[in-house]
């Protein structure tokens, strides 16, 4: 094995693109799966005769698994080597996908989704570590734009692909499609990824793991149970949140003691990392939480098929596709503090339309707003991540990407829970229909619930003979409920401007090539075959 220094050219050569291709393929598989499942939830409800709160655990269980395993990925990458661990993560995700397709009950599907999440949780932080090391500091912005490809393809192709597979085949195929992709990714990774030397000398923080991983899982479990219970006072909500929160606080206090903590919070001493992480966290809560509601509006209020809902969401990804490569190049040359606020203005402008939702809001207006939001998203996510990672030293990259990814997962989970609770609470305020009960729960059936159900299953009107005016009133109420929820998300988007104002407005030297902060004097050798 020979050593080759990282080039200082900003162009992406074939060797770097070959490595990036492996990472992109794994990330596409992981992110695609999240967006595909989001449009399949109504199908799971009817297939397994379960409530929305119950089938939502197919996504929540996946997220909990991510939160549990992400803190381990930094240490494991150092201990076993990124190539070996990345291939294990790919295999685990692929096996979990195959198992999901065999599920006979909603409980089984949730369990197999957890297995999937254990693999998926390692793919993104490991992928970020691999391409950051391969690119060097001079090209990290461009490489982050390449990594952004799956973040674009997920919102574009995920709902479309999921809707098409469900409409023409069955829900099983949204998981089976991962099998050939996973096998190709494994072979590609074996051939393309360079060997890397493991560093087994670093001790593993078992005590930190016993606090952080269960703490995060319990805390997110409590938050994710809120939509089902509708109140924080329920024991299933406050008890795991309290215990989980106490464990996380205990970990934070403890983590500054060991030399090699499970999650290196000392990295927050880096001002650029801290500001970028806070900006991204607030943004993820608003954007990812509300993002799950876009397909729900088209499916439940407008009565669209899963395929049509996926096509209607596609403009958002198309907008991001246009701006993300430009933002990646600018991130290497222009301080993100000068570009990200403008991108946030586009997101806020597009978001405002969804605070005015009705039952007949123009699709041209909605798709146009999603496109504008996509333009803003393309100029936000990758530049913020670039700002977070480019001032870290080479030895800090693995742990820095782990820190960034776990904040993303927590923010996404918190955002999804907040938006689900608000929407559920609003919908529950609809008038009950005298003498009508929900077949799944036995609870009184409201006008909004019946109107939403009738959009997907018109035969329910025969089961509950009601005047058309009641259905119209129920849909109006449902649209207003979505509108109210989007107002909260819009407020959180505006809140993102506060930390974004502190993002670097001057060019900062990258320390990625150094072991210690300072000038870029040394080169990191990149092993090649």
Automatic annotation (TrEMBL):
It comes from Micromonospora marina. Residues 19-508 form the Major facilitator superfamily (MFS) profile domain. Keywords: Cell membrane, Membrane, Transmembrane, Transmembrane helix, Transport. Residues 509-523 have a biased composition (Basic and acidic residues). GO terms for molecular function: transmembrane transporter activity. This is Drug resistance transporter, EmrB/QacA subfamily. It is found in: Cell membrane. It is a multi-pass membrane protein. Residues 509-529 are annotated as: Disordered. The chain crosses the membrane at residues 12-32, 52-73, 85-104, 110-131, 143-166, 172-194, 206-225, 237-254, 275-294, 306-327, 339-357, 363-382, 403-423, 484-503. It comes from the Bacteria. It holds the Pfam family MFS_1. GO terms for cellular component: plasma membrane. Signal peptide: none annotated.
């Amino acid at each position: 094995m020979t050593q080759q220094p990282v080039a200082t050219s900003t162009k992406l050569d074939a060797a770097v693109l070959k490595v990036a291709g492996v990472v992109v393929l794994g990330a596409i598989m992981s992110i695609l799966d999240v967006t595909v499942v989001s449009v399949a939830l109504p199908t799971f409800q009817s297939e397994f005769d379960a409530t929305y709160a119950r089938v939502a655990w197919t996504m929540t269980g996946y997220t909990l698994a991510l939160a549990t395993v992400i803190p381990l990925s930094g240490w494991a990458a150092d201990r076993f080597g990124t190539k070996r661990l990345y291939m294990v993560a790919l295999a685990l995700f692929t096996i979990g996908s195959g198992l999901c397709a065999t599920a006979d009950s909603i409980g089984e599907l949730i369990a197999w989704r957890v297995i999937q999440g254990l693999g998926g949780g390692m793919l993104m932080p490991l992928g970020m570590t691999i391409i950051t090391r391969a690119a060097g500091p001079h090209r990290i912005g461009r490489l982050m734009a390449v990594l952004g490809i799956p973040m674009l393809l997920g919102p574009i192709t995920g709902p479309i692909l999921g809707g098409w597979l469900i409409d023409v085949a069955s829900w099983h195929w949204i998981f089976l499609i991962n099998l050939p992709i996973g096998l190709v990714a494994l072979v590609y990774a074996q051939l393309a990824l360079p060997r890397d030397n493991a560093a087994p000398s670093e001790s593993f923080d078992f005590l930190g793991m016993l606090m952080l991983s269960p703490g995060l899982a319990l805390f997110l479990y409590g938050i994710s149970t809120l939509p089902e219970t509708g109140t924080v006072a329920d024991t299933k909500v406050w008890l795991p949140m309290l215990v989980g929160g106490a464990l996380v606080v205990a970990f934070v206090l403890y983590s500054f003691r060991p030399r090699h903590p499970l999650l290196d919070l000392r990295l927050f001493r880096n001002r650029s990392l801290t500001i970028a992480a806070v900006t991204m966290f607030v943004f993820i809560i608003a954007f990812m939480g509300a993002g799950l509601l876009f397909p729900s509006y088209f499916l439940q209020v407008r009565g669209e098929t899963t395929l049509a809902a996926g096509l209607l969401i596609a403009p958002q990804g198309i907008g991001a596709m246009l701006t993300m490569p430009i933002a990646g190049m600018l991130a290497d040359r222009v301080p993100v503090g000068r570009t990200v606020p403008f991108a946030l203005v586009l997101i806020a402008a597009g978001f405002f339309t969804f605070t005015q939702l009705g039952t007949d809001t123009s699709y041209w207006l909605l798709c146009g707003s999603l496109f504008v939001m996509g333009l803003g998203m393309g100029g936000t996510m990758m530049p913020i991540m670039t700002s977070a990672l480019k001032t870290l030293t080479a030895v800090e990259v693995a742990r820095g990407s782990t820190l960034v990814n776990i904040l993303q997962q927590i923010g996404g989970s918190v955002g999804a829970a907040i938006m689900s609770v608000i929407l559920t609470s609003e919908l529950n305020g609809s008038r009950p229909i005298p003498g009508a009960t929900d077949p799944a729960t036995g609870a009184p059936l409201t006008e909004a619930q019946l109107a939403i159900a009738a959009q997907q299953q018109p035969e329910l009107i025969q089961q509950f003979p009601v005047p058309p005016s009641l259905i119209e009133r129920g849909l109006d109420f449902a649209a207003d409920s979505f509108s109210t929820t989007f107002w909260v998300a819009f407020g959180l988007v505006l809140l993102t401007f506060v930390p974004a104002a502190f993002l670097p407005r001057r060019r900062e030297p990258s320390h990625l090539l150094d072991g210690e902060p300072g000038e870029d004097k040394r080169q990191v050798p990149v092993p090649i075959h």
